[in-house]
Each structure stands twice: as C-alpha cells, then as structure tokens.
Amino acid sequence: MEEGDLGELKREVEEWFVSAAVTRRYLIPCNVLPSTAEAFDVGPIRFFHVSDLNPDDYGLPAGGRVADVSLEPLRRVMRDHAAGWLGEVSVEGCEKQRSAEIADLAVDVAIGALQLVVPAKLGRRMVRVTARRLPAWRGSFSVTESGAEFGGANEQAGLGLAPDEFEELIDSASDVMAAMGRLIDVYVSGQGELPMLKGAWCNAVYWFHEGMSEPLDTVAVVKLETSMEILFSAGGRTGSKTRIVDGLRGMFGIDGSQMVDPSSGMTYEDLATEIVKARSWVLHGNWPTLALRDRGIDRATVEIMARQFLFEFPLVVEKYAREMGVGAEDDAQAFLDWAISTARARDGQKGGED
User: Rounded distance, CA 67 to CA 56, Å?
Assistant: First the structure.
C-alpha cells in the first residue's frame, strides 16, 4: 500500500468514526420501586419514574404521533415486565453497539450502588429490565393426594418500601452516593484519575449486583466473593484471602486475629479463609452447586462483608487520592498499604490519647 493510499484510508476511518461516535442519550427501563418517588442521581445516571417522562425533553412533541410511535417499544417492555422506572445516561465518543453496552452496564453498576444503600431484603430484586432478572409475579401449582396446591406471590423490586422511606435512605447516604457516582463517571467517560482502582470498584459492584439478584445461595456466594476479589485485584485464592484481611485492617481497623464472635472461636482471618474456600470449592466441584443449603459459610455473611467493603471504598479511595496527590499509585496493593499505614497511625494516636 502506497503512502497516499494509507493517508486516504486514515481519512476514511476518521470520517467514519466522527459519524458513528456521536453522543447518545439512553432511557433504560428498570425495576426499582412499584410506586413513584423523587428522581435521584447516581453520578451520570439519573433514575426517575416513567410518569415523569416528558417527550419534549427528548425532542418529541408531547401528545404527537411521533412521540407515541417512538416511545411505544420502550413502554411495551415496561408494561410486560412491571417496570415503572427509567435510568437515563449519556455516552459520548463510541459507536452505536459499544455505546449501548456501556449505557446498560453503567445502569447495572448504578443499581448495584443503590443496593448497597437499600436494605438487602428490599433491594434484592432491583434490576435493569433488559438484564438477567426474576419475574415480578410468581405463580405455583402442585397436586397431592389431598388435592391441588396453588398460589401466587408479588415479587416486585422494592415491594414494601414506601416512597418517603426510599427517599430518606438515599438522602441519608448522599455523600457516599455522590462518591459512588464519581467512580461510575470514570467508567462511562473513560476519563479521570486512578482509573484502575475506580474501575475495579465498578466491576466489583457489578458482581455484587449479580450476587444480590442470584436466587441460588451457592452461586450467590461465588459472585459475592468474586466482587471482593476484583475490588482488591487479588489474582487468586491466596491473594484474595490476604487482601480481604488487609482490607479489614486498612478500611475498618479490624485485625485478622480478632474474634468475629467469641462464642464461635472464629477469627476474621478464619472467616476470610472460609469465604474464599467456599467460592473455590463450589467452582471446582468440591461442594455441589445445587446444594439444598449453604455449605461452610452462609450467604448472608459473605453479602454483609462485600457490602461493607463496597460501601466504604469510594470515600476511602478518594481520601487516598487527596492525601497522596500526584504520588498516588493506581494499584490495589499500594492502596491497601496506605490504608493499613493510615489505620496504624490512627490507632497509635488513639493509644497516645488514652
């Protein structure tokens, strides 16, 4: 290929990219609450009830046929899946397929962030409608010698959470929600400091979201432990246990030798070992996936630990960036070493005051 041909090809590619990589503003249907509530933001994603959708905001004259036709596919999927909420997100500088993928995944992470704030039993079914999801209603039927057994259950996301309680939960966690949003913005925009650490949190929250939505306890444990492994870039079973222990020390001031519960005789290091082992043994067939009950470690314990790490991480990593300045390494071990050093200094200061 001659130099002139190469230059022409480069110009054609650049022209194609300029035409394809436009800014796209997405509306993504979600199951958040069965009822209306105030709109709220998680970084670049705005969540609002469909009753607040104004076609004029999207260049569609309200009440016109163009708006009806344009929005009907979206409204239909929302009706089919009992979805009353929308996530709005803009993605810049990507071709259409990649742009849609980023928008979907960003909403997944934002819903995962919301699940860190909302009590587990109320937020478990919050999900993007076009992701892996469970039905809003469940019907059952069986028959015995005594006759038929049948029934139904409403299993909508956020069922039992009143709008004012939901709004209060979000308001009470406004600082950490804002920090979570800033980490998600790094993923959506592809720009910002410490992209590896902040990206690790986004990936970890995605796995947490998957674990929350998972009905099978053994698989949920795998996903929830994976979220912690990804958060700290563990790289393997041994590294995962070590970094969970380091995370407990650095982020919460909990030494691995401390007892979880004096009656159990289990230390936090023992707990980390059991959590990592549970994931490994399920994945490698030492424990059956289709177990009737939790094996070795219960789902709730893993969920609580993952939730605490992911909830605290955004504010702690921003503190790390402020204190270390330009010297802040975009590396999980460097971050944990700093956190542990900070915790030791804090403990030493407390000891001096005592």
Answer: 9
Q: In what order do the strands lie in the sheet with 40-42?
A: 40-42, 45-49, 85-91, 24-31, 127-128
Q: Kindly report, residue by residue over 128-149, the tens digit of the pLDDT.
A: 999 988 888 899 999 999 999 9
Taking 70 as the pLDDT cut, the residues of the chain under it are 1-21, 235-238, 292-296, 348-354
Q: Under 8 Å CB-to-CB from 213, ≥6 apart: which residues?
A: 124, 125, 127, 132, 133, 134
Tell me which residue has tokens 């998972």.
214
How far apart (Å, rounded) are the C-alpha atoms in residues 279 and 301? 13
Predicted pLDDT of residue 133: 81
Question: 29 pairs with which residues across the strands?
Answer: 86
CA distance 249 to 235: 20
Mean pLDDT, the chain, as a whole number?
A: 89
Q: Which letter does DSSP use for residue 337 in this model?
A: H
Distances (CA, A) of 106 to 21, 25, 122, 166: 18, 13, 21, 21
3-state helix, strand, coil in the chain (%, to 5): 60, 15, 30
Joined tokens for residue 206: 């995605």
Parallel/antiparallel/unpaired status of strands 137-144 and 147-154 = antiparallel
